[in-house]
Write a structure and sequence with these properties.
Elements (H helix, E strand, L loop, with lengths): L1 H4 L3 H7 L2 H8 L18 E5 L5 E4 L3 E2 L7 E2 L6 E6 L6 E6 L5 E6 L9 E4 L4 E5 L1
Antiparallel strand pairs: 1-2, 1-9, 3-4, 4-8, 5-6, 6-7, 7-8
Length: 129
């Protein structure tokens, strides 16, 4: 499966919608309150839109009021790196398997972690239970 996760830009463009490509492969951000999953309450597992890796569970999703899907703990396969774009200091969250941009993590979330994983809907695909 690892070979399936490394693709050329042209291959990603073929597989993803324009918005998914802009967000997941070019580190874009969807507008607040516009994403498919920001207000979704369906139970299931949120997977990477690019490679299908398990990322977050609906059990850790909460309404942060930010306009993006927010989770207080990842389910698996994410990486974090410093992001100083747009004149801000943030921590970018990526899919560890295919390096898709997911969003950012902040230290203003609920217990028990105190973290808010603020994730773009365009980077996710919900596998409903």
């Amino acid at each position: 499966m690892a070979g399936e996760r490394k693709k050329s830009e042209a291959e990603w463009r073929e597989l993803l919608s324009e918005e998914q490509f802009r967000v997941a492969r070019q580190s874009g951000t969807e507008r607040a309150f516009t994403g498919e999953y920001y207000d979704c309450k369906d139970p299931g597992t949120y997977r990477c839109v690019c490679c299908g890796a398990e990322l977050f569970s609906s059990e850790t999703k909460y309404d942060s009021g930010s306009g993006w899907p927010s989770f207080w703990r990842p389910l698996g396969e994410i990486s974090e790196e410093s992001d100083s774009s747009h004149g801000m200091r943030r921590v970018e969250v990526k899919c560890a398997a295919c390096e898709a941009h997911l969003g950012h993590v902040f230290e203003d979330g609920p217990a028990p972690t105190g973290l808010r994983y603020c994730i773009n809907s365009a980077s996710l695909k919900l596998e409903k239970k």
